[in-house]
Amino acid sequence: MSELTDLSLRDLSAGIAAHRFSPVDVVEAHLSRIAALEPRLHAFVHVHAAEAKLAAEAADKAIRSGHGLGPLHGIPIALKDLVEFKGHVTTRGCAVNRDRVSTHTATLAQKLLGQGMIVLGKTHTVEFAYGAWGTNEHMGTPWNPWDMKTQRTPGGSSSGSAVAVAARMAPCAIGTDTGGSVRVPASWCGITGLKTSVGRISTYGVLPLSPTLDTPGPFARSVEDCAILLEVLEGHDPNDALTATLPPSNPMPTLKRGVKGLKLARLPDAERSEFDSEVLEAFDRSLKALEALGAEIVELPPGGRSLRESGDLVGRIISAESYPNLADLVDSDTLPLDQAVRARVRAGASISSRQYRDVLAAREIAKAEFSARIAGIDAVLTPSTMTAAIPLSSVDQTQTPAVSTRWANYLDLCGLSLPNGFTKGGLPLSLMISCRAGDEAMALRIGWALESVTDWQTKAPAL
């Protein structure tokens, strides 16, 4: 049964359809792995074992009787602990909310359940989803499974989801990305993560951090699995007006079309000094691989703000939008809150309405300017993170590791992070493919092309 936890969504679906194994087998295999690893890895806030087993039995009976709901029926998934799931605790990563029970189910969870997917449980997040290191002072920090001797940063804020997928405790999971919260943990945990466009996936029932920037997205162990999940998750939701702004991404028809003839812009030379040498070596190898497949690699045309400047403005937007919603919590010094997160949210109190308006106005100008800069360019390629995962003891909570991701949120891009190598010490590295808002299909297409000539996505931590 342990081998079932290594299979992709497509392989799990094919195996269930061919009756080589059942949803009961698949769920039991993942629950057994959770039971074995969770005490050390701490990926889950709650594991819904009894309910998942019942759902697997029901799925098995439905499929065997010819009443299957589709190719994902009976396949398990984990949800970040921001996603409302009626009758279950949703804490938002905050110890104050340990007993908070959801009264409704998020649209994205309804879509997954409508396909017959089975929720294994809720995964840990940085408190309020505000932080990219992946730490949580009171609820606990998930253990990055690539180093079982030294506890390293799992990446955040979707830390538990990434650890669960990397450790084969779930074949896929849901995260959210406001400034890098899918792409950073995907990078440090050696898996694939898709940061979707604003409006691509409904945020109804996903507890907000920054409504301007919040985007849910999938984690999986391959580009194709992310594309499969995107098709399920996207679409118009009357409860989220932004979902009416984008046509369907329709990623599958173009997924395996290759990159021949595409023009891909690389990280500007002026920005390379921000990144570790091993990160840059893996990045340059990825560029050469894509060039060998027929893509034209060009330097990003000059102009605009630096990565760090754009990231700072994203931080101002997040703080300005989160503080009004969280003031009652963060301003009460008696409540058990993560002190680093408390400071980030409280920073919003000093941002005036005029300053906030000016940042948003400047962002719209920057988006238009960037769109003009990349005319004729299909994607921008950068490393996902500046370093590999670092020891928790080295974390400086006054700094963010999301410098290499936040700029894409500032410019309203979508992005895919996928494995592209390892450090000499065996820690995963990652490439980020950023595309125009609404063009997830292009990011997935480029990612699939690179994945087809490498095998980084097949590597698993030794547990």
Features:
13 helices; 36% helix; alpha/beta; globular; single chain; 13% strand; Amidase signature (AS) enzymes; 463 residues
Question: What is shown here, in short?
Answer:
This protein has 463 residues and is of the alpha/beta class.
The share of residues in helices is 25-40%
Q: Report the CATH C-level class.
A: Alpha Beta
Roughly what fraction of the amino acids lie in strands?
5-15%
Question: CATH homologous superfamily, by name?
Answer: Amidase signature (AS) domain
Distance between the termini: 16 Å
Structure classification: alpha/beta
Number of domains: 1
**Uncertain runs with pLDDT below 50, 5 residues or more?**
none
Annotated CATH topology: Amidase signature (AS) enzymes
CATH architecture term: Alpha-Beta Complex
The spatial strand order of the largest sheet comes to 1-3-2-4-6-5-10-11-9-7-8
Largest sheet: 11 strands, mixed
What does the radius of gyration come to?
Answer: 21 Å
Number of strands: 11
Count of runs of 4 or more consecutive helical residues: 13
Identify the overall geometry.
Answer: globular
Q: Mean pLDDT, as a whole number?
A: 97
What is the string of helix and strand elements?
HHEHEHEHEHEEHEHEHHHEHEEH
